[in-house]
Each structure stands twice: as structure tokens, then as C-alpha cells.
């Protein structure tokens, strides 16, 4: 969930030339002693090392993204594109920094994720996102365009999503998603997660799946984003939970594994079709979102489904109710208390695509 915050300008240690250049020296023939030659060679090495050290402080495009980066993007260009990181361009703030809309002089519009390096774990978060996004390509994963980094400033430049996020469309009065649009987005998310687990040599567990991290493009296609808390696991591996900045209401109890993302997906599936957040005031210690859905699904499912999706006066009310109930049943199967009882993501994707097919036909 984004929190409004003004982010001050970031320091810059000065922009240096892109390359040192080649030092060419024309010399007349001299009869130099061996000691003089040694001094000259040593001096050249010292100059080279000093200039190389200075160049390390230049914010520059990360070498991680050579295939997708059209040109080098500097800190100065980012500052101009965001109007000095002005609040009017602030798209939102998360655990490790803020995201700005940047409009560049060449007409390109990007989302710029600026990491707050004062927050513990921000450096690691940046490195993890670079590791994940440079190795994974999928239509439903956020696409990184470039990066800008030095010791004082780190930012990822991502494809801009004009429809912001699933969070905005679910919980804003001036936005509306119909049944199929919501289902399509959840199919997109399931497809992205399935790729995270099987599209790369190392399994990637997102660890912070929630509606605000599902970005929507101009066609309302879902793109999973924000891998700052992601975990890279070997096959069949799990690790203990650490204290993170993830939203607790979406996190499964137990060790971090792919089944934790399945749990988060199930909670998000419930939220998408009930329009209730898992941390709403109605959910206290004795009543969680899952227990609320579980207690109602076979008794009066119409009481928990988003009222904007179904009306009893509709001619296809029964068909819609059955369809929506099957979605919530799938969500319950994703959020079982024991990880071994939850569906795997391949099964989730197969099931939700089957539900969509049956509803349309």
C-alpha cells in the first residue's frame, strides 16, 4: 500500500565524462635510463587508477540490462524527467523507496523506482531486483528498461503502467473492473508466478504479493512488480521468515517457499471478488478473511461477493453465483493452513483458466 511522502533531492557527486579516453603520446627518440622509464610507467598507472576510481561514482546505466536499454540514462536526465523528484510525479511509496513518473526529452515515459538508501536493506533490495529482472522475461512481469546507480543514488527505470495498479482499481470509487477483467488479471498474476518458479534455474519466491504490486498497463493486463523482498531458492528449498517490510495480512505462516506465494495469491483472489481487504476492521483475531469466506461460501455466497458484480434480478444470477463461488473455492484451496495442502501454482493456473473458459462458454 502506497503512502504519500515527499522525497527530497538526492545528492550527486558530479557527472564525469563517459570514458577516460586513450592517452596517446608522441615522443622523439631519447636515450632514457631504466630508472626514468620505471618512473614514467608507475606514474601512468597511478593516473589511470585515480581516474578509474572517480568514474565509479558516476550514476550510470547498470551493465545488467544491455539487451533492453536504448541508451544511457543519467541522474541529471532522471532529475529533469521527474521535475526534481516533485511530488506531482510521485506514483507511490513502498518499503524501500518511492516510484516516480518520469517524462524524458525524447518523449519516453518511464516509472522510476528510487531506493531510499537510508533504510536498512535498501542496497540488498536493489541488488535482488536487478538479479531477478535481468534474468527473467515474461509478458506479466514488470519490464526493466535501465538503471542508474552509484554510492549515493540507486534507481530502476521500469516500463510505465498508465492504469497504475489492481489496488487502485479495486478500491477507488471512480474505477470499476467487471468479472472477466478481474479474472483476466488474476490469470495474468498466476501466469507470472508460474514462470517465476519454472522459467529460471533458481526458483524465485516473490514474498510480497498484493494488489498494489500488480501493475496494470493501458489494456489492463497485469504485471507483477516489486521484487525487493524476493527470495532465490534451490529446488525444493525453503527458508525461515525474516522480519520484512511486507504486508503481514498477505503473508502465510511458516517458512518461505513457493506455497507462501500461493497463499498470498489466494488472499488476493478473495480480495478481488469481495472488495474486502484482509486487514479491514471487520477482520479481528477471531475472524480472518479466509474464515469469513469459508463460513459463508456454502451458506450464502452472495453475501460476501462484491455487490457491484452480481444482482439477484439478473437473468443469469445463478450462473454468475456458481462461477464466483468456484473462484472463492479456489482461493480457499490456495490458503490452506498447511503448505502441503495448498495447490501448486501450475494447478492454480490450470484451474483459474478452466473456470474462465466455463463461464464464457
UniProtKB/TrEMBL annotation:
Its main location: membrane. It comes from the Eukaryota. It is found in: Cell membrane. SUPFAM superfamilies: Protein kinase-like (PK-like). GO terms for cellular component: plasma membrane. It is a single-pass membrane protein. Gene3D superfamilies: Phosphorylase Kinase, domain 1, Transferase(Phosphotransferase) domain 1. Its EC number is 2.7.11.1. SMART domains: S_TKc. Residues 85-360 form the Protein kinase domain. It catalyses: L-threonyl-[protein] + ATP = O-phospho-L-threonyl-[protein] + ADP + H(+); L-seryl-[protein] + ATP = O-phospho-L-seryl-[protein] + ADP + H(+). It is an enzyme of class 2 (transferase). PROSITE patterns: PROTEIN_KINASE_ATP (PS00107), PROTEIN_KINASE_DOM (PS50011), PROTEIN_KINASE_ST (PS00108). Keywords: ATP-binding, Cell membrane, Glycoprotein, Kinase, Leucine-rich repeat, Membrane, Nucleotide-binding, Phosphoprotein, Receptor, Repeat, Serine/threonine-protein kinase, Signal, Transferase, Transmembrane, Transmembrane helix. ATP binds at residue 113. GO terms for molecular function: ATP binding; protein serine/threonine kinase activity. Transmembrane segments: none annotated. InterPro entries: Kinase-like_dom_sf, LRR_receptor-like_kinase, Prot_kinase_dom, Protein_kinase_ATP_BS, Ser/Thr_kinase_AS. Belongs to the protein kinase superfamily. PANTHER family: LEUCINE-RICH REPEAT RECEPTOR PROTEIN KINASE EMS1, PROTEIN KINASE, PLANT-TYPE, PUTATIVE-RELATED. This is non-specific serine/threonine protein kinase.
Amino acid at each position: 500500500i502506497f503512502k504519500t511522502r515527499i522525497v527530497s533531492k538526492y545528492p550527486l557527486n558530479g557527472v564525469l565524462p563517459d570514458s577516460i579516453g586513450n592517452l596517446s603520446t608522441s615522443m622523439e627518440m631519447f636515450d632514457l635510463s631504466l630508472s626514468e622509464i620505471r618512473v614514467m610507467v608507475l606514474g601512468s598507472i597511478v593516473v589511470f587508477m585515480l581516474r578509474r576510481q572517480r568514474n565509479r561514482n558516476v550514476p550510470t546505466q547498470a551493465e545488467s540490462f544491455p539487451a533492453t536499454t536504448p541508451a544511457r540514462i543519467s541522474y541529471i536526465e532522471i532529475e529533469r524527467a521527474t521535475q526534481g523528484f516533485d511530488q506531482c510525479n510521485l506514483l507511490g511509496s513502498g518499503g524501500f523507496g518511492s516510484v516516480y513518473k518520469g517524462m524524458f526529452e525524447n518523449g519516453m515515459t518511464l516509472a522510476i523506482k528510487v531506493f531510499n538508501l537510508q533504510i536498512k536493506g535498501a542496497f540488498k533490495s536493489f541488488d535482488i531486483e536487478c538479479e531477478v529482472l535481468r534474468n527473467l522475461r515474461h509478458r506479466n512481469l514488470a519490464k526493466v528498461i535501465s538503471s542508474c546507480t552509484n554510492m549515493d543514488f540507486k534507481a530502476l527505470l521500469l516500463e510505465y503502467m498508465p492504469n497504475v495498479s489492481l489496488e487502485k482499481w479495486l478500491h477507488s470509487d471512480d474505477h470499476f473492473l467487471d468479472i472477466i477483467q478481474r479474472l483476466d488479471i488474476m490469470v495474468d498474476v498466476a501466469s507470472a508466478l508460474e514462470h517465476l518458479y519454472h522459467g529460471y534455474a533458481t526458483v524465485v519466491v516473490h514474498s510480497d504479493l498484493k494488489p498494489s504490486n500488480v501493475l496494470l498497463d493501458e489494456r489492463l493486463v497485469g504485471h507483477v512488480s516489486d521484487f525487493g523482498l524476493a527470495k532465490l531458492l534451490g529446488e525444493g528449498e525453503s527458508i525461515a521468515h525474516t522480519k520484512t517490510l511486507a504486508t503481514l495480512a498477505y503473508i502465510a505462516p511458516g517458512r518461505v517457499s513457493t506455497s507462501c506465494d500461493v497463499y498470498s495469491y489466494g488472499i488476493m483472489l478473495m480480495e478481488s471478488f469481495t472488495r474486502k481487504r484482509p486487514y479491514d476492521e471487520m477482520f479481528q483475531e477471531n475472524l480472518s478473511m479466509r474464515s469469513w469466506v469459508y463460513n459463508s461460501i456454502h451458506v450464502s455466497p452472495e453475501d460476501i461477493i462484491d455487490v457491484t458484480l452480481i444482482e439477484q434480478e439478473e437473468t443469469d444470477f445463478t450462473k454468475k453465483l456458481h462461477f464466483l463461488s468456484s473462484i472463492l473455492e479456489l482461493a480457499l484451496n490456495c490458503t490452506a493452513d498447511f503448505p502441503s495442502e495448498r495447490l501448486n501454482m501450475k494447478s492454480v493456473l490450470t484451474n483459474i483458466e478452466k473456470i474462465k473458459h466455463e463461464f464464457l462458454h
